[in-house]
Amino acid sequence: MPRADPGRPHARTCAVVGSLMAEPWRHSHELRLLNRAGGGLEIRADLIGDIDPAVLRDHVSGELIYSLRSMAAGGLFAGTADQRRRRLLGTGKRFDLVELEIGRDTTPEILAAIPPHHRLIAWHGQSAAAGGLDLAALMRHFGAMATIPARHYLMITRATAAEHALAPLRLLSSLNRTNVTAFSIGETGACGRLLAPWLGAPMVYGQIGGRGPEVPSVGRLLQDYPLPNLPPVHHLFGVVGQSVHGSVSPRIHNAAYQALGYPGLYLPIPTTDFLGSWRTVTAGLDSLGCTVGGATIVAPYKEAALRLAEMTSGAASRAGAANVLVRTGTGWRAHTTDPIGVVGALSRAEVRLSGRKAAVVGCGGAGRGAAAGLLRYGVTPTLVNRGPDRGIRAARLLGLDYVPLQRFTPADYSLIVHATPVAEELLFPLGQLARDTTLVDLTCSRRPTALVTAARRRRLQVIDGWEVLRIEVARQFRLMTGRWMPDPRH
């Protein structure tokens, strides 16, 4: 990935740092992963108390970092200034690095006790929306931090919109240093946190034992991304939606890039305002030399993606929704892989489509895409939806019949595609289905969904969402990169 200073040598690795937020013995698996990667461990003493570092050194080969994060900095330490001073002076000196919050901990006494090579000077601020933190403001804050000699500097802002996570990245690019880590936290900060090492940040933080979905776990950092290595990246891609932190797409795409030696990086890009922020975010990343080449679009932005694009594929136009945006020389082209996902999964399962009476339950972007795919292959499905407005609109768009969910009779159909996000309950009964009925469930869940479980119990043929996803991801990969994706099952 090009840097602000093209002549600067490209850093080949970064340190993966696990933020320990619970008792270490409950998370031995992630500690082993971290140790194999040579990563460091941040002990969040404000959350779990002071732990003897000698105990931890048996489990982690990297550096140990002591953090007593205050409530003002987003932590939970609420003691007095004297209690904080005594804990930093007593426990902190036994760690490789001690996080010192600027202004609060950078007193002459503490600085005299903790030498520069053990200091990690930290600053925590608010997003542009809350405090007007642009690049100039961040530069001023760092200028104050840099007057205190230290081995590392850490700057964290809280982002409330996708574009606000760009400011720390601009800071890294402008500073052109190798001892500053800067990123945003909050729902929209994941992309910047993961991209920061390619812009010079020497560390990337993941959580161990934490519950916040916006912060990736150490396991996800090491399994979904090429970390701690920093291979060259010339093309940036991502998955865009309101809730994308649990998406498996980064793992699949990044593994394929590594297998092919392709200089790409695939990241989660959460946003609560897709239409309002997409062009700002991509332009901002472009200005950093991080060219966005394409993205997977998930709920609830599939229809918005169609409106944003300058060009649209025939399949996306027919479905009235898009789940892929690909950059061209003149703008964005919208595609949908939902049709090929369903039809391709049925083909792999050797399900013959001719003569099938089909129904598609769910009339959102995925359901309309599935129906369009079946239509193309000679099957005319009936659309089923709980809410009549979306169901009638989809029926008019595709020229199909619509049946309200409460009047849906599953036994009348030999092929049923479930295209709603409901995973924990059955939307329709399976008791009267014929033995040769095939069900396709588009919902991807870590555990088998209620529909998949019930269908398997009745020994019906069922294709789960993971089979469909594999086909769709391969097609998305091809659209974005022009390359064939290696089979992720091999």
From TrEMBL:
Residues 239-325 form the Shikimate dehydrogenase substrate binding N-terminal domain. One of its GO terms (molecular function) is 3-dehydroquinate dehydratase activity. Keywords: Amino-acid biosynthesis, Aromatic amino acid biosynthesis, Lyase, Oxidoreductase. Its EC number is 1.1.1.25, 4.2.1.10. Pathway: Metabolic intermediate biosynthesis; chorismate biosynthesis; chorismate from D-erythrose 4-phosphate and phosphoenolpyruvate: step 4/7. It comes from the Bacteria. The keyword Nucleotide-binding does not apply. The keyword NAD does not apply. InterPro entries: Aldolase_TIM, Aminoacid_DH-like_N_sf, DHquinase_I, NAD(P)-bd_dom_sf, Shikimate_DH-bd_N, Shikimate_DH_fam. This is 3-dehydroquinate dehydratase/shikimate dehydrogenase. It comes from Kibdelosporangium banguiense. The lineage of its organism: Bacteria, Bacillati, Actinomycetota, Actinomycetes, Pseudonocardiales.
